[in-house]
Specification:
- It is a single chain.
- The chain has a five-stranded antiparallel beta sheet, sandwiched between helices. Strands 11-13-14-16-15 form a five-stranded mixed beta sheet.
- It contains 20 helices and 21 strands.
- 28% of the residues are buried.
- Helix 1 crosses helix 9, helix 10 (399-426) crosses helix 15 (559-569) and helix 17 (649-658) packs parallel to helix 18 (676-686).
- Helix content is 48%, strand content 19%.
- The chain is flat and about 110 Å long.
- With 735 residues, it is of the alpha+beta class.
């Protein structure tokens, strides 16, 4: 019984192969149908795109003509004729009968005056037609080229006809170009007449409430001439194009490229809006498209599949006995492989789970270290602030002690602000003020400060490269980074030694661009010491916040992490090499600045005084935090400024529209909804000359990057003191 079943296997394979061949033939047939449908969609898309492009060019042409009229209060006929001749309508815009202008005449008295003026200048027999009383008139006087067709339209009142009037009113109410429905153009004076339509754009004198309708620039178009020229370079042998206004009925037909076959195999309907008017494009396949047959793969696939099935069945029959002999051995080997594979999977899962646990432990350790360090330092600073404020509250009758307590509280608050800045630097969220910097000059300028900070036991050496490239960086932060590294180097040499600060131009062979998008040219600033060095595991954690090997009270563990965050935010990299008893070298790599903007980015020197404001200077303060906004508003009012305040971007823009006397916009960068950069951009669209001052204590990635419109905008970092705010306001107003 088992042997007879095996004998049936070749027959079963043959039947399965035959079924697969028939299925493949069906798939090929379906794919061919889909390919034909896709090819038709491409033809249809190209035709609709051509129509859209032609109408876009007509709307552009109309806007250009409107611009010509808006440029002058009075346009002479010869000026308009020269303008239209330069457009070369007959050469480039087939189907466009001309460009015209119809003046709006509110009553019969203005009609009579307009007729007298036109008769005296160019048209002795000029009159507005058709006759009849209406609520307003229009009169075609400018229409070029003034050929025999267009002469027939001179004086015609387009407001007298409902379809034209609807389009003219739509253009008036929307202040945009509007297309009319299908009409018979008054220029159709020949026996063979075409459907037509017009495009209107209203012109006004004045602005706002004083705006007054002047008339309409318009263009009459013959549909068949227009769209025959549109498809002149296209092959429509496989496609019939019909264009209808609003709905696909014969009364609304604008254009038909050829007679529609009785039963097209494919037909599509496309609708789109042009100039406020819905057009319907019906696209039908032609006999040429329907009769086009590709190579018949269906029969070939079915025949080839059947033949292959027969050959496979014969081979299987011949190999049946050999297969039977190997089945047992294959089953045995398969079982062995299955067991081995199971063991490998179990080992892999166990290893992955162990690695995940290690990574989680490392993350939790880092988070615990970070939060513990933050809590420790902030508790110390809060103790200073709260203790001194409590002391001041209890010693109100002793002004000197109150002033000392407030001063000590301020010192604690400033230390908290510095800690926040360091955390922001590590997280690459601080607001930087970059400029073009000569690193050699910066290092020489702070050499004396570093010598005092290093002490007499440590020797400072500098090795500065000639012709060092410049870099674009926050100079204050760079000084702080170098000083941090120098102090770390001093602490690593308790018995004295040497700290060497060196600069160099470095070009890395990583192609034209690095992964960060910066140039592969870098300015290198290295700080090297001869101290105790670090082991490999300590060096791996050197940049973690609050990680330190110093004794308690000798460091916060934020120095290297702050340097790391600042350098990364500036587009550079930080490298550290160290070994026990062989010293440590930290290298700052900053991208080379290729632009010559040194003069534009020179630092602004702070004035020692606190400048006062004037009551005729109005500042709009935008801040979503109520208490921060209240402090800023009260401070600026004490300085003498007139203040308007807003809690968000929308309210700020509304106040700006209502108060043209605003002389400066002072806005926070990070706000819900509309951020400060967006507020400034919209404000400058309204008033391009408006001075702007940013304030921020934290800037997320999406608004950290410089904007091309922000080149003249200063950023004030939070928290700020009254003097800092006063100087920044004064600098911005006086710039």
């Amino acid at each position: 019984m088992q042997r007879s079943r095996r004998d049936l296997i070749p027959l079963l394979v043959f039947l399965l192969g035959l079924a697969a061949s028939l299925a493949a033939a069906a798939v090929v047939s379906h794919a061919e149908s889909a390919r034909r449908a896709a090819r038709f969609e491409v033809l249809a898309d190209n035709a609709v795109a051509a129509i859209r492009a032609r109408m876009l060019s007509q709307l552009t042409l109309l806007r250009a003509t409107a611009g010509f009229f808006k440029a002058s209060d009075q346009v002479r006929p010869d000026e308009f004729r020269n303008f239209v001749e330069r457009l070369r309508l007959s050469g480039y815009y087939a189907g466009v009968l001309g460009m015209g202008y119809a003046e709006y005449l509110p009553d019969r008295a203005s009609v009579a005056a307009y007729e007298r003026d036109a008769r005296s200048e160019e048209f002795p027999d000029f009159h507005v037609w058709p006759e009849g009383a209406r609520n307003g008139y229009s009169a075609i006087r400018f229409l070029e080229p003034l050929d025999r067709r267009n002469r027939a339209a001179i004086g015609y009142d387009m407001l007298s006809e409902p379809t034209r009037r609807a389009a003219m009113n739509a253009a008036l109410s929307s202040d945009e170009a509007r297309v009319s429905g299908r009409v018979r153009l008054v220029q159709e004076i020949d026996p063979v007449k075409q459907p037509g339509f017009l495009i209107y754009l209203a012109l006004f004198d004045g602005t706002g409430a004083a705006r007054k309708l002047r008339g309409w620039v318009y263009s009459p178009l013959r549909a068949y001439d227009l769209f025959d020229a549109t498809f002149a370079g296209s092959d429509l042998s496989q496609l019939t194009v019909e264009i209808f206004d609003h709905e696909p009925v014969e009364q609304q037909l604008l254009y038909r490229s050829a007679p529609v076959p009785p039963h097209p195999s494919v037909q599509r309907i496309r609708r789109f809006d042009t100039g406020g008017r819905t057009w319907v494009v019906r696209l039908s396949s032609t006999p040429k498209f329907d009769d086009a047959q590709s190579f018949q793969l269906t029969a070939l696939v079915a025949g080839a599949g059947t033949l292959i099935s027969v050959l496979i069945a014969i081979l299987m029959f011949q190999q049946r006995r050999a297969t039977a002999r190997t089945e047992q051995e294959v089953a045995l080997r398969t079982a062995e492989l299955r067991d081995a594979n199971g063991r490998l999977i179990d080992e892999g899962n166990a290893r992955a789970e162990a690695e995940a646990q290690v990574r989680q432990m490392q993350k939790m350790e880092a988070i615990g270290q970070l939060t513990g360090g933050i809590a420790h330092d902030f508790n110390n600073m809060l103790a200073i602030i709260l203790g001194n404020l409590d002391l001041a509250e209890r010693r109100l009758e002793e002004p000197d002690r109150v002033r000392r307590a407030i001063g000590h509280a301020r010192e604690g608050a400033m230390r908290a602000a510095q800690l926040t800045q360091r955390l922001l630097a590590f997280g690459r969220r601080q607001a930087l003020a970059p400029r073009v910097v000569d690193a050699n000059a910066l290092i020489l300028g702070m050499a004396e400060l570093m010598r005092r900070a290093l002490g007499k036991e440590v020797r400072l050496e500098t090795v500065l490269a000639d012709d060092l490239w410049r870099c674009f960086v926050d100079a204050v932060q760079l000084e702080s980074a170098i000083l941090n590294l120098a102090i770390n180097a001093r602490d690593a040499m308790p018995d004295g030694g040497a700290v060497t600060i060196a600069t160099a131009n470095m070009r890395r062979s990583t192609g034209a661009q690095s992964e960060s998008g910066q140039s592969s040219d870098f300015v290198s600033i290295s700080v090297r010491d001869t101290g105790c060095g670090m082991s490999e595991d300590v060096a791996a954690r050197a940049f973690e916040p609050f990680f330190t090997t110093k004794d308690v009270g000798r460091g916060t563990g934020l120095g290297l992490s702050q340097v790391y965050g600042f350098v990364s935010q500036s587009g550079g990299t930080l490298e550290l090499t160290s070994a026990p008893e062989r010293g440590t070298t930290v290298v700052i790599l900053l991208p080379r600045e290729r632009r010559n903007q040194a003069a534009a980015h020179e630092a602004i020197e702070k004035d020692a005084r606190v400048p006062a404001g004037r009551s005729d200077e109005t500042i709009l303060v935008v801040e979503d935090e109520d208490q921060v906004r209240r402090i800023a508003v009260e401070t600026l009012r004490e300085l003498g400024y007139t203040i308007l305040e807003a809690a968000g971007g929308e309210q700020a823009l509304a106040l700006l529209d209502q108060h043209p006397e605003v002389t400066l916009l002072f806005t926070d960068l990070v706000m819900p909804g509309m951020n400060g950069r967006r507020v400034a951009a919209l404000a400058r669209e309204r008033r391009p000359e408006l001075p702007v001052l940013y304030a921020t204590g934290y800037a997320p990635e999406e608004i950290l990057g410089a904007d091309e419109n922000d080149g003249d905008i200063e950023t004030l970092r939070k928290p700020f003191e009254t003097a800092d705010l006063a100087r920044a306001i004064r600098r911005t107003l006086d710039a």
